[in-house]
Amino acid sequence: MALPDTSRDDLVAFLPHRLNRQPVVVRGLTADELWICAGLSAAAGLIAGLPLAWLTRSVAMVPTMIVAGIAAGVFIGGGLLRRQKRGRPDTWLYRQMQWQLALRHPHWAVRFGGRGLVTRTGGWTTRRTSRIRRPRPRGRTP
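-> structure tokens emitted (142 positions)
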């Protein structure tokens, strides 16, 4: 006789919720979020390192600023992102990025799945008249 949580081939019929989550790697960031944070920080370090390398006439400033940018981005950006994510669903960051992309660059939103997001702002209506209708008394017709 099989247990109610297993099927005939002894596989678990359900998975606990926490097994489907990505593991936290560094400072509350998952692996994907860490790559995003490191990539943006490396780009900022590159942008800061190019003029600094020209001023100091040392090409070594570019990789130095990239590494410093990644370190600062992971530790500072990771802390800020962890505070923003607190209490929100696992997909919050990706949906937030899609929403910002759909608002600012709608032509790019089609490529990155932001087309189905609601970006309209305004009041909601139920298409009813503003007059309150009272129910008619039963048994009598006016």
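The CA atoms of residues 36 and 74 lie 10 Å apart.
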